[in-house]
């Protein structure tokens, strides 16, 4: 089956808040992301550390554009910056409607595997590095679905 497939990558700033509130916010974001993405055929990953969200959305051009349109209006984050939007031949992250992975220092192994300095300012990651990193983190993470949103969710 052929599909007009696009990959959109953006980053945004996380709002400052207490850790417990951040966790709740992330869980709520993922719940609504899953609900919508399942209907629109969007899949991807949401990477996050204390300062940043970096998200990869894959799906039809219409679906990723309209999803991004909703996301940038969301007040749970700030300053979204579109890093890339391009056609792709296949999905890298087809398993998840939306999975989330931390990219703090505890994920340094994935950075090192990809030859990226684990101390890099996350805002300087290029789209290519983000895709590699997302792939490495997803592969390395022993996803435990009982462990809430921070370790990722599988809805496939
Ligand atoms: C960092 C971040 C990532 C998000 N990712 C998605 C997503 O992948 N898909 C989606 O539909 N909504 C996503 N959202 C939520 C949308 O911004 C929006 O709140 C939601 O789609 C509105 O739907 P609801 O009112 O039915 O929950 C995200 C929001 C934030 C802050």
Can you describe this structure?
With 156 residues, this protein is α+β, with helices and mostly antiparallel strands. It is 35% helix and 26% strand. It is built from 4 helices and 5 strands; from the N terminus they run βαββαββαα. The chain has helices spanning 19-40, 61-72, 108-113, 127-140; strands at 5-14, 43-48, 52-60, 77-87, 99-102. A 5-stranded mixed sheet has the order 4-1-3-2-5, with helices on both faces. A hairpin with a 3-residue loop joins strand 2 and strand 3. The longest helix is centred in the N-terminal third of the chain and has 22 residues, at 19-40. Mean pLDDT is 88; it is low at 144-156. Bound molecules: flavin mononucleotide. Flavin mononucleotide binds at residues 29, 32-33, 36-37, 46, 53, 55, 57, 67, 70-71, 74, 76-77, 98. Flavin mononucleotide binds next to helix 1, strand 3 and helix 2.
- Tally the beta strands: 5
Mass-distribution shape: globular
Q: Would you tell me the structural class of the helices and strands?
A: alpha+beta
Terminal CA distance:
18 Å
Helical residues, percent: 25-40%
Strand proportion, as a percent range, falls in: 25-35%
Strand order of the largest sheet: 4-1-3-2-5
**Which small molecules are bound?**
flavin mononucleotide
The biggest beta sheet reads:
5 strands, mixed
Average residue-wise pLDDT: 88
Low-confidence stretches: 144-156
Q: What order do the SSEs take from the amino end to the carboxyl end, as H and E?
A: EHEEHEEHH
CA radius of gyration is 14 Å
* Count of alpha/pi helices: 4
Give a quick precis of the structure.
This protein is of the alpha+beta class and 156 residues long. The chain has 4 helices and 5 strands. It has helices spanning 19-40, 61-72, 108-113, 127-140; strands at 5-14, 43-48, 52-60, 77-87, 99-102.
